[in-house]
Amino acid sequence: MVVTQQISKISVDHKRCTGCRMCEQVCVFFHEREFNPRRARIKILMNEKEGIYAPLICNQCKKCISSCNRDALSWDERIGVVRVDAEKCNGCGLCIEACPEGAIFLDPISGIVNICDLCNGDPQCVKWCYDKVLRYGAA
User: Fold this and answer.
1) Cα–Cα distance measured from residue 57 to residue 23, given in angstroms and rounded to the nearest whole number
2) Which domain covers residue 93, as residue numbers?
3) Residue 98 — φ and ψ, nearest 5°?
4) pLDDT at 46
5) Looking at the predicted structure, is the pLDDT value of residue 139 above 90?
6) CATH number at residue 111
7) Residue 9 pLDDT grade (very low, low, confident, very high; cuts 50, 70, 90)
8) What's the pLDDT tens digit per position in 80-97?
């Protein structure tokens, strides 16, 4: 099992994750000003039988960009993230299918895809992760 992996400038130490889901809550609050984990850009995968929790977040591989037939996805060179143009996105899910990590999510309220944008270079999930599961910057 991989204990630590590099994910788009965010490294994840899966062994430390307790499944508290604080990262999901702060993500949604930062972006949507509400607490609704279904709208988060990071998800906690849980294997309750084995007591294993693992954050799932976009690794910014860019494979989704070419899958979009509406040009709703673009690369932000400044921060190094995939951007979603909500005006162009119709929620068709082609990018979700193209994502090798399964880390793109359809927002159940807006119908637009949610992809981690590193909170514009200041990832809140990292700041609020009490157990230091998530780290931002060079690994």
Assistant:
1) 10
2) 4-136
3) -80, -20
4) 93
5) no
6) 3.30.70.20
7) confident
8) 999 999 999 999 999 999
Tell me how far apart the alpha carbons of residues 38 and 121 are, in angstroms, rounded to a whole number: 22
**CA–CA separation, 2 vs 30, rounded Å?**
29
**Would strands 10-13 and 134-136 be described as parallel, antiparallel, or unpaired?**
antiparallel
* Interstrand relation of 10-13 and 42-47 (parallel, antiparallel or unpaired): unpaired
CB 127 within 8 A of CB 26: yes
* pLDDT for the residue 137: 80
**How buried is 138 (Cβ within 10 angstroms: 0-12 exposed, 13-18 middle, 19+ buried)?**
exposed
Three-state secondary structure along the chain?
CCCEEEECCEEEEHHHCCCCCHHHHHHHHHHHCCCCHHHCCEEEEEECCCCEEEEEECCCCCCCHHHCCCCCEEEECCCCEEEECCCCCCCCCHHHHHCCCCCCEECCCCCCEECCCHHHHCCHHHHCCCCCCEEECCC
- Pairwise CA distance, residues 60 & 48, whole Å: 28
Based on the structure, what is the number of domains in the chain?
A: 1
Residue 86 token pair: 């909500």
